Amino acid sequence: MESILLILSLLCLLTGIFRNSLAPGKYYPALFAVVCTLFVLLAGRYAVQINKLSVSRAFADTGVRQNLQVLVTLHLLFTLGFAASKMQKAFGLKRNLFYRALEYIPALLVFPSLFYLHVVLLYSFPGVSFAYVGIAFAGFTLLCLGGGAYLFRAAVPETELRTELLLLVELLLFVLMLCLNLA
Predict the structure, then answer these.
(1) Does residue 114 contact residue 6 with C-beta atoms inside 8 Å?
(2) What range does the domain containing 159 cover?
(3) In this structure, what DSSP letter does residue 125 have?
(4) Exposed site from 15, 60, 91, 148, fewest CB < 10 Å?
């Protein structure tokens, strides 16, 4: 169960990187990375109060997993609208306000996955101060989400290919979430 949750969290971060690489403007990925870094720093005191046993107990409940499935489905619907907006823009079609607004909505699952990874990291390094782990994870978040988006944008300059890769990773995330609900 823990390994599936870890894979789901890492896939959520990967979709956040892919989605940021498609974000409009030059500075949106950096701004989103700073917001995620501030989230990690501010959520650190709440992550300390949660232990891994309570997280495992919560995910053992089928109601929590079903609620998480609803959240993943909602995230997937926003991503599909985001991809439709990107494809309309790529093909020169006129987009209405709803599709243009979807480009500015960040990846929803990045924040819960960052919180879960923070909790996992806190208890993976016994003897290390929680503050040091939190600061190191915040720096990693800034580099990973901000720098990863710019690197992915430079490595794959075609918007259509980046959108396709985003949809494939989102589909994998959805299928893994279905497998988690069946377990």
Answers:
(1) no
(2) 2-182
(3) S
(4) 91
Tell me the CA distances in angstroms from 60 to 52, 56, 64, 86, 165, one per residue in order.
Answer: 12, 6, 8, 38, 31
What would the two tokens of residue 106 be?
A: 């960040």
| Tens digit of each residue's pLDDT (9 = 90 or more) over 80-114 | 888 888 888 888 888 888 888 888 888 889 999 99
Output the CA angle 69-72-78, nearest 5 degrees.
145
* Dihedral sign of CA atoms 142, 144, 149, 151 in order: positive
CA-closest candidate to residue 11, choices 146, 172, 156, 151: 172
Domain count, the chain: 1
Residues 20 and 143 sit within 8 Å (Cβ to Cβ): no
State the virtual CA torsion across 140, 68, 98, 83 in degrees, nearest 10: 60
What SS3 class is residue 183? coil
Q: Which residue type, as a one-letter code, is found at position 30?
A: A
pTM to 2 decimal places: 0.90
Residue 3 to residue 162: CA distance in whole angstroms: 27
Tens digit of each residue's pLDDT (9 = 90 or more) over 18-37: 999 998 888 999 999 999 99
d(CA 30, CA 142): 8
End-to-end CA distance of the chain: 8
